[in-house]
Amino acid sequence: MMITVHQTLLGIAAAWSLVTAILIAALIYRSMLENREEDQIYLDPAEWALANEQRAVVRHVERLTWPIRGLFAGSGMLLLTAVALWLWEGLNF
To answer: Which range marks the domain in which residue 87 is found?
Structure first.
């Protein structure tokens, strides 16, 4: 029984590590995109390509919102599950 709990806890910890690493990578990527984003751009008609590039950056940042929220939720749930299992194991053995 104890070995099964340890294996389960190890699996949950590994899954949490993976999800959290992906979350950190997504946050870093979003931060890099946001550094390229300008608040205001003053363009003449010859520089519309810069405006299109900024629109693309904003779209990429907006697309990352829901996956990052999902990764936060997944990481939190896995962490809570690991802590609960660890506490349960400690109280029962």
So the answer is: 11-92
